């Protein structure tokens, strides 16, 4: 199985800050990487697919990059509604595996 | 509006069986049968775990080896519904379970899980 490692596990930031979350795959996955946002008590929401394609309706302050084994999710200017937990998932081969999550908290 | 509606919360005892459902609404018959439906587990306070996936069109099913033999994924395309079932529940099955559509690009490669159900809470306790 491909292991996905996110960093950091948690981050504190302020509204307006730029935040970057990284995700590393144990084997190359080309661009088959997905980012999700999950708020407490809610189902996850897809933000980015194919490493850098923005889901329709997702604000453009979210962006994704990377290929192979190293990927990043960037939020260019944090808004209050962005405080949540973020997960990466490799969708290159079964079983699709998730990173352990990054909790983004208000500073 | 395309959505997945999951069955309600369940409280069960260890050793009991359970089948939870995930019904597609707003899908045409063809779009449901041509979408893969995946299941994800989230244990209390923990992260997301991919359980497995089914293609309702022909019931092709793939499991995470960690869940193989512990759960069964099935689908009834005639009623646009997918299922996740347990033959003998354990306390460690206590979790929230989500279903979600997954569009495959080619072979096993996919664009992730886009339409999600609201989740079904399963509590297993004696």
Description of the structure:
- The complex is a heterodimer of chains A (about 110) and B (about 130).
- In chain A, about 0% of the residues lie in helices and about 50% in strands.
- Chain A contains no helices and 11 strands.
- The N and C termini of chain A lie far apart (about 35 Å).
- In chain A, about 35% of the residues are buried.
- With about 130 residues, chain B is mainly beta.
- Chain B is built from 1 helix and 11 strands.
- In chain B, the strands form 2 sheets. In chain B, strands 2, 4, 5, 6, 9, 10 and 11 form a 7-stranded mixed sheet that branches. In chain B, strands 1-3-8-7 form a 4-stranded antiparallel sheet, with no helix packed on it.
- In chain B, strand 5 (about 50-55) and strand 6 form a beta hairpin.
- The mean pLDDT of chain B is about 95.
- Classes of the chains: A mainly beta (about 110), B mainly beta (about 130).
- Chains A and B meet through strand 4, strand 5 and strand 10 of A and strand 5, strand 9 and strand 10 of B.
The average pLDDT value of chain B, as a whole number, equals 94
- How many strands appear in the DSSP assignment of chain A? 11
Q: Unreliable runs of chain A, pLDDT <50, ≥5 residues?
A: none
Q: What is the helix tally of chain B?
A: 1
Taken as a percent bin, the fraction of beta residues of chain A is: over 45%
Give the proportion of residues in helices of chain B: under 10%
Measured on Cα atoms, how large is the radius of gyration of chain B?
14 Å
User: SSE string of chain A, helix = H, strand = E?
Assistant: EEEEEEEEEEE
Number of strands of chain B: 11
Give the class of chain A from helix and strand content and strand pairing.
mainly beta
